[in-house]
Amino acid sequence: MLNIGIYGGSGRVGSLLIKNLQNDEVAKVSCVHVIEGIEIEVPGAVVTNDIDTLIQNSDVIIDFTLPEGTQALLEKLLITPKPLVSGTTGLNDHQINLLREVAQKAPVLYATNMSLGIAILKRLVALASEKLRDFDIEIVEMHHRYKKDAPSGTALTLAEFAAKARGLDLDEVRVSGRDGNIGERKKDEIGVFALRGGDIVGRHTVGFYNDGEYLELNHTATSRDTFAKGAIKAAKWVVSQEPGLYTIDDCLGL
Ligand SMILES: NC(=O)C1=CN([C@@H]2O[C@H](COP(=O)(O)OP(=O)(O)OC[C@H]3O[C@@H](n4cnc5c(N)ncnc54)[C@H](OP(=O)(O)O)[C@@H]3O)[C@@H](O)[C@H]2O)C=CC1
Ligand SMILES: O=C(O)C1=N[C@H](C(=O)O)C[C@H](O)C1
Question: Which residues are annotated as active site (predicted)?
């Protein structure tokens, strides 16, 4: 059996990871990390608030937490490397660099979205961005009221694919707020906007707008299980890879 450690075990995705692994034939939850004070019981698994204990009791770790949580885990993994799947979004440059450093010592799969649909959408976006060179690109994402980071990691990834396909640097062309007398839209702008409300699991629309026509590509996640199942598949795959930084596309063979 593959021993999977869950980092963020009390979270929305973390609890679904535990649920989905209950009847898995090749993998089980061996350890669950929770923040001190949170009490959960997972039959057959060690429950801990200590990251070293999580690492010791896992063949591979799945992380769905917050950026500061991911950073604390990565700092430990630099000393005690272990295969890792991380889906935490909102990471800053330092935290992304830490991911890269850990990936020199162990296989790491990082993806802002673990769904097959978004993996395909990224490719469609790159194609449309390149071929519809005169069309204005605007991305809108919608998520539940509890989401902390904005725009979503997925929206930023989609924007990166769109920018790269046009040879643009996303940092130079991204616009994530418009208010007041801001003047006309610049040709190369890529708008990335966040809406929050209710229990929306995740909806991303990438629009390509021109005079006389527009194309909108939309993906809607209707169940958070999609992400949990994708992450479990990724964990089973990454554990037998060489050290390196992978994404969900590698695991899906795309
Ligand atoms: N890549 C993908 O496919 C997806 C990515 N996500 C991303 O995953 C992350 C988690 O999402 P979600 O499950 O909805 O969030 P939740 O807030 O439900 O869960 C976060 C979990 O992380 C724990 N946590 C918070 N801070 C720390 C810390 N400093 N150290 C250790 N653990 C910590 C929380 O513990 P406590 O409850 O005690 O605060 C909780 O268990 C987000 O970044 C989200 O954007 C979400 C869905 C899909
Ligand atoms: O926080 C969420 O819920 C989600 N976060 C990820 C993101 O920021 O892109 C993926 C998914 O859309 C759900």
Answer: 143 (proton donor/acceptor), 147 (proton donor)
Name the strand (E) or helix (H) holding 245: strand 244-246
Q: Is 11 annotated as ligand-binding?
A: yes
Model pLDDT, residue 114: 98
Pairing of strands 84-86, 107-110: parallel
Same domain, 65 and 139: no
Active site (catalytic) residues: 143, 147
Structural domain count, the chain? 2
Say how far apart CA 131 and CA 222 lie, in whole Å: 30
Q: Is residue 103 located within the same domain as residue 123? A: no
pTM tops 0.90:
yes
pLDDT band at 37 (very low <50, low <70, confident <90, very high): confident
Give distance in angstroms: CA of 111 to centre of ligand 2. Answer: 10
Known binding residue 167? Answer is: no
Looking at the structure, do residues 84 and 16 belong to the same domain, yes or no?
yes
**Residue of the nearest CA to atom 1 in ligand 2?**
147
- 193 pLDDT band, cuts 50/70/90, is very high
